[in-house]
Every structure is written in C-alpha cells, then in structure tokens.
C-alpha cells in the first residue's frame, strides 16, 4: 500500500474525494520509469515535505533523477494542475521534456511539453512543462500569481543565472499570496544554507538525497599545468580513442572557435587511421547552433563501430544525459560575459569546483567512467571558487528591471534578491538605459511603451526598435521584423568565415552594411519559396532561416495585439518602407532608437574605427560585410549591434550600418547627442557629443 500526502488545492486526506483521486492516479511502474534511481527512495520524504511547507530545498547528486523523475513523482501523486520545471538552457528544457515524455510513452507535447523563447510544444492536455526561467517570468506579466501551476521546480539553482535568481525572488512573493503553490529548488551542487536562509521566513524544508551515479567515476588530474588546453584536449581525446575501451566521450572547451578547431584536428587525424580502425563520430555543442543541430548529440552514432565524441561548452554541464558517455575531458575553463556600457567583456576564466563536479557527473551513467581534468589537483582544491559568481553581479539588468516594473515591483531595493543583491550602480545604469529607451518616465514609472517592451521576447533595445518601426516617422515595420528575426537566430550561413561562404555572401551584400544584408537574405529566401534546395546552393542553413520565419510571425502577432488595444491605435504593424525613396534612411533611423550608444567613427588614416563613447579602438568582426573594407562614399560614422572584448584584448564589433548623416542620429534619439562645429586648422569640423560625456572630433 502506498502512502499519500495532501496536495494543496485538493481535498484533505480522509475525504471520499481524496480516496477516489488517489485510486485513479497509480504510480509509474518499473516498465515505464527508471524507478531504481535514488530519488525514488526519497519519494515519501519529498511528498511529506511539500505537504508540510510551501518550499523544498532539494540537494541531490548528479544522476539521482531529480530533473526527470521529480516532476513525474509530483504528477503521479496527483497535484491538481500543471507542474513547471525550469532549466537554465533551452536545450536542457527540450531534452528533459523529450526524455520524460518517452518514459510515459506519450508524444512530446501531450502530457509533457516544453516552452522556450520563440518555441512552444504543449497542448491542453499538458501536465508537466519544462521551460527556461525567462519564459516563466514573462508568463508572470499576464498571470502574476501563476495560477495555472500547482508546483514550480527551479532546477540547477546552483547556476545562479540572473533569470533563475529573479524567478526565486518572484516566487518568494507569490507563495505568500498563494497558499496552495509549492516551490522546489533543486541542484546537485548548490549552497543549501544560502537558499534555506533566503526562504526561512516562508516555510522551508531542506532534503538532501544520498547516492547518485550508478557507477563510480575515476578522476585524473595533470601533474603539471598545460600550456595549450585546446591542444591538450585533442591529445587526451585521441589517447582515449586509441588506448581506452569502447565508450563515448564528452569534452568541454570554452567557445565555438575552440570547438571547431578541436573537431577539425580530430577529423584530420582520422585520415591516418588504418581502414579497420574504429572512427570518431564528431559533434559540436554550443549556443550558436540551431535547436536541430544541438539535438543531434542524442542519437546513437551511425555505426556501432564508431565512438561518439561531443565537444561542448558549459551548455552540457548539467541536466543533459547522454547515456553512452563514459569519458569526460574537462579543460577547467569557461567563457563569461561581463556587461559594459557599450563593450561587453568576454573572459576565459577558471570554473568553480561545483562546475567541475557537474562536468564529471556526466560520466558513469551506464558503466564506470573516467574524468580527465586538464589541470592539477592543487588548482582544483586551492584556486577554484566553491561556486560560480552570480550572473546578477556582472550582467546588464535592464531586461530584469523592465520585467519587475511590469509586475508592479517599483521598489528595487526592497525586492527579495537572492544574495548578493546587485549593486546600486548597476541598478542605476539599467534605469538610465530604460529611461532613454522611453520604457520608464522621469519618475521611473513604466510607460505604455515599456509595458509592451516587457512582453516582447527581445532585449529592451531591440524591443524599442521594433515598436518604433510601427510608428511615425519610421513606418518600416515589415523590414525591421525581418532584420530582428535574423538577429535572433544563429548565422544563416554555413561556415560564415570560409572563403566559399564569403563568396556566396557577396550576392546578398548591401553597401550600407550588415543589417540590410540580413534583410536581403531573408527577402531572397521568401521570394524563392523558402526552398531547402535554394539554401544549399547559396550555403545557407535552411533550418535557421525557417526558424527566423517562425520568429518573425510571432513578433508580428505581438504587434497586431498591441495595435488592437486602446493605447495602440497609432501602431501600424503592416507598414513598409521597401519601395520608398527614403527606405534606407527610415530603416537606419529606426535602428538608432535602440542602438544609439553603439556609435563609432572610421579613421581613414589608420583604416580603423574608434568608439564615440570612449575613443577606444575597435575592429570589425570577420563575419561583417565591412571586414577589410572602408565605408562607401567617404562616410565615416557607423552604428553596430554588439561589441565584445576577445581573449587577445581586441574589441570586435558585429552587425554594422553606415550613417549618411549625423542628423539621422540627432533626430532618431532627441536629447542624447548633439553636433557641434569646431573651427581651426583648415576649416570647420563636425563633432558628435554625448549629452552626458565628451565629444569626438569627426
């Protein structure tokens, strides 16, 4: 006889309703669920904890089944409405939903589904939804009390992503108003005490589950530090392949370029293998891949004689289970982004001990495994942090604050931030940015524009551009929709830096810059019937462009809904500038409403660019149409979408457009800049001056 606990929102134990509902929701049998995982031995403790307190802090090792089995335990025990389970990355949300739906022998999207940015696979029958934290936060805008959920599971809380941390703060406020809501905060390596203290006033239970991996994982360290971790990764993978028994390999590197380099080196080495030797099935995994390409890591290799090798960023660090992985190669490094006013600092730094444990935990699922750490044991014990620095300490908070404002949370200082709270400087910087974007007024109150921006699944500066495009004087909504959907996907071209792709790209290039080049690609794809064959001929990724079409449709539906409201009578979501004589001017002016800080000047004497905000030298990224080219017709001012500082301390700018006239900038964002004329030398020179900074000579 199974023991049942009361679920908030259902009948109390002992009633006839409770007994009938209990009989109609049997536990999953061993034939449909791997109920030998450690979390099943704690099933009764979990249910008892949730019947006693609204919040459960669940610490369970990797391999214990918390990601896939915990929602199933809650579902089969009869929680009355939807169970949400957040995952820090879209791939883990999709793969977890797919795994659980297969355990239930039901199609993905029926009982179990997922929701990520720009993609949903659910139905009216869905009882378990895997999603990213940002998706659930945006749902709070329409339903602040999350009334359709009975349980919210925040998985991988140790990740300390800004959206996960903010979600926990929002949930802390919601459980005080909804006595029937239950919250589970779970991870293998989180600091339990910190989360317990955070929820202490709200009724919290801490449960630590022993056990985890079915098999031991042997950990090996380098005796001495290595000089080139990419080369050492390749050498280690090759030694495993030639010396170790059969079993798949998961290796961690820090970024796309390193992954591509390592895979190319391994592919070249395979050419020297004898015909009878086993081959490597080489697969990349990073955020720059489409969802379709990311999920290619899950199927078995084409041949049983092949060994699968996945080379990944930290995207594969948690909640992704590849059953065949026996060997893990950990470089011990991760790439982090620290937001700046204009330039984002992208650094390669040591991972935390918690991340190292997570990486090692990817092995040992189906047989004893090995983890090769490409650093010394002393580095692990003495130099690595215990846990990762919370993202809220190093990222732009404008999206976060816009969301909190849309939820009616105006006092940002009193908001329950998971410690440590963001600095006052970061909060003030985000508020200033939102004010310039017209998302908040002079009293920091949310405007109608700001409310619409908070609903759009775009960063605030891109949301502002989209809303501007549907209003006077820009009226170029059709073109901006196409440009933004292309900016929201990975590169549309295969191997964008290769000579073959660069040659193909020329047929779409616009002399005005990358934004209009992206528009040309999208329009050509649409004109040619969205054909896969046409994409192959032009080295374009059909799945990426198809996703761009889907994103465009979703964004357009948002605008149509806004325009049908009383406040949105002035929006014109069907407007187009394509066949007008001032099309380029209107499109570029519209882009400036969100990209106004990203201004740079071309120096013909040095063939380089200088940022207006800081006089810093920047370089055009090789994927840009302006790489190794100067702006046409003697023009000097450009605006770009993104600037990042690379490891070699160079700053690269991506997605550029040329400004015909500085007056475009002044009229697009009144009050932010002014143009002065300075006299001296051979005559007058124009100078662009930020109203809160110093000027740059033109």
Q: Can you characterise this structure?
A:
The chain has 698 residues and is α/β, with parallel strands linked by helices. It has 4 domains: 16-208, P-loop containing nucleotide triphosphate hydrolases (Rossmann fold); 217-392, 3-Layer(aba) Sandwich (Rossmann fold); 456-583, no CATH class; 597-697, no CATH class. Helices cover 36% and strands 19% of the residues. The protein is built from 24 helices and 24 strands. An 8-stranded mixed beta sheet has the order 4-3-5-2-6-7-1-8, sandwiched between helices. The chain is globular and about 70 Å long. The N and C termini lie far apart (82 Å). The model is unreliable at 1-7, 11-33, 681-685 and 692-698 (pLDDT under 50).
Features:
698 residues, alpha/beta, Rossmann fold, 4 domains, eight-stranded mixed β-sheet, six-stranded parallel β-sheet, 24 helices, globular, disordered N terminus, disordered C terminus
Any chance you could write out the topology, listing elements then pairs?
Layout: H1 16-23, H2 38-41, H3 43-52, E1 55-59, H4 66-76, E2 82-86, H5 90-103, E3 112-116, E4 119-121, E5 128-131, H6 133-142, E6 149-154, H7 162-177, E7 182-187, H8 192-199, E8 204-208, E9 217-221, H9 229-243, E10 248-252, H10 256-270, E11 279-285, H11 291-294, E12 306-312, E13 325-330, E14 333-338, E15 343-350, H12 353-360, E16 369-373, H13 377-383, H14 398-406, H15 424-436, H16 448-455, H17 460-469, H18 477-487, H19 499-505, H20 514-527, H21 532-537, H22 542-563, H23 583-595, E17 599-603, E18 608-611, E19 617-620, E20 637-645, E21 651-658, H24 662-668, E22 673-678, E23 685-690, E24 695-697
Parallel strand pairs: 1-7, 1-8, 2-5, 2-6, 3-5, 6-7, 9-16, 10-12, 10-13, 11-12, 13-16, 15-20, 19-21
Antiparallel strand pairs: 3-4, 14-15, 17-18, 17-20, 18-19, 20-21, 22-23, 23-24
Helix pairs in contact: 4-5, 6-7, 9-10, 14-15, 14-16, 16-17, 17-18, 17-23, 18-20, 18-22, 23-24
Domain Helicase ATP-binding: 47-208
Organism: Pseudozyma hubeiensis (strain SY62)
Keywords: ATP-binding, Nucleotide-binding
């Amino acid at each position: 006889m199974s023991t049942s606990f009361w679920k908030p929102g259902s009948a109390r134990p002992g009633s006839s309703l409770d007994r009938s509902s209990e009989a109609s929701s049997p536990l999953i049998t061993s034939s449909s669920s791997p109920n030998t995982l450690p979390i099943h031995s704690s099933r009764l403790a979990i249910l008892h904890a949730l019947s006693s307190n609204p919040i459960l802090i669940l610490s369970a090792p990797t391999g214990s089944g918390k990601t896939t089995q915990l929602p199933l335990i809650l579902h089969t025990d009869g929680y009355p409405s939807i169970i949400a389970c957040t995952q820090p990355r879209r791939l883990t949300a999709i793969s977890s939903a797919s795994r659980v739906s297969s355990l239930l022998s039901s199609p993905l999207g029926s009982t179990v589904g997922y929701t990520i940015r720009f993609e949903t696979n659910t139905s009216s029958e869905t009882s378990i939804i895997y999603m990213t934290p940002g998706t659930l936060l945006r749902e709070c805008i329409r339903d602040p009390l999350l009334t359709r959920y009975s349980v919210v599971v925040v998985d991988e809380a140790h990740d300390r992503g800004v959206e996960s941390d903010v979600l926990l703060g929002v949930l802390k406020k919601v459980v005080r108003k909804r006595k029937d809501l239950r919250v589970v905060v779970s991870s293998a390596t989180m600091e339990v005490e910190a989360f317990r203290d955070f929820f202490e006033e709200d009724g919290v239970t801490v449960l630590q589950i022993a056990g985890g991996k079915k098999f031991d994982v042997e950990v090996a360290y380098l005796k001495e530090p290595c000089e080139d971790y990419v080369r050492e990764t390749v050498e280690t993978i090759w030694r495993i392949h030639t010396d170790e028994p059969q079993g798949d390999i998961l290796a961690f590197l820090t970024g796309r370029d390193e992954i591509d380099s390592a895979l190319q080196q391994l592919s070249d080495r395979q050419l020297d293998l004898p015909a009878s030797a086993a081959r490597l099935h080489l697969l990349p995994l990073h955020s720059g891949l489409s969802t379709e390409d990311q999920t290619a890591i899950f199927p078995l290799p084409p041949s049983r004689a092949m060994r699968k090798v996945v080379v990944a960023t930290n995207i594969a660090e948690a909640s992704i289970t590849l059953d065949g992985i026996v060997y893990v190669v950990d470089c011990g490094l991760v790439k982090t982004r620290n937001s700046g006013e204009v330039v984002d600092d992208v650094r390669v730094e040591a991972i935390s001990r918690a991340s190292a444990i997570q990486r090692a935990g990817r092995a040992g699922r189906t047989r004893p495994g090995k983890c090769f750490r490409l650093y010394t044991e002393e580095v692990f014990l003495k130099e690595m942090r215990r846990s990762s620095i919370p993202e809220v300490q190093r990222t732009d908070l404008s999206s976060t604050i816009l969301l909190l404002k849309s939820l009616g949370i105006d006092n940002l200082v009193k908001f329950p931030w998971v410690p440590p709270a963001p600095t006052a400087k970061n909060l003030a910087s985000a508020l200033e940015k939102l004010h310039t974007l017209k998302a908040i007024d002079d009293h920091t109150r949310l405007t109608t524009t700001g409310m619409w921006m908070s609903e759009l699944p775009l960063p605030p500066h891109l949301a502002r551009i989209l809303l501007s495009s549907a209003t006077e004087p820009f009226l170029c909504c059709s073109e901006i929709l196409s440009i933004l959907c292309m900016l929201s996907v990975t590169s549309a071209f295969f191997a964008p830096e290769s000579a073959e792709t660069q040659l193909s790209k020329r047929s779409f290039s616009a002399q005005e810059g990358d934004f209009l080049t992206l528009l040309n690609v999208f329009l050509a794809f649409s004109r040619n019937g969205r054909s896969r064959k046409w994409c192959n001929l032009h080295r374009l990724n059909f799945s990426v462009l198809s996703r761009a079409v889907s994103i465009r449709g979703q964004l357009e539906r948002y605008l149509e809904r806004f325009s049908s409201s009383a406040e949105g009578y002035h929006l014109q979501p069907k407007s187009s500038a394509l066949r007008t004589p001032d099309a380029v001017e209107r499109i570029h002016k519209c882009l400036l409403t969100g990209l106004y800080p990203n201004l740079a000047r071309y120096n013909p004497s040095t063939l380089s660019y200088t940022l207006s905000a800081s006089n810093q030298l920047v370089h055009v990224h090789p994927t840009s149409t302006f790489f190794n080219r100067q702006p046409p017709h003697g023009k000097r001012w450009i605006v770009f979408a993104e600037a990042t500082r690379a490891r070699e301390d160079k700053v690269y700018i991506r997605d550029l457009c040329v400004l015909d006239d500085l007056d475009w900038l002044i009229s697009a964002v009144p009050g932010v800049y002014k143009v002065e004329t300075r006299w001296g030398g051979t005559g007058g020179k124009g100078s662009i001056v930020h109203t809160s900074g110093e000027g740059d000579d033109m």
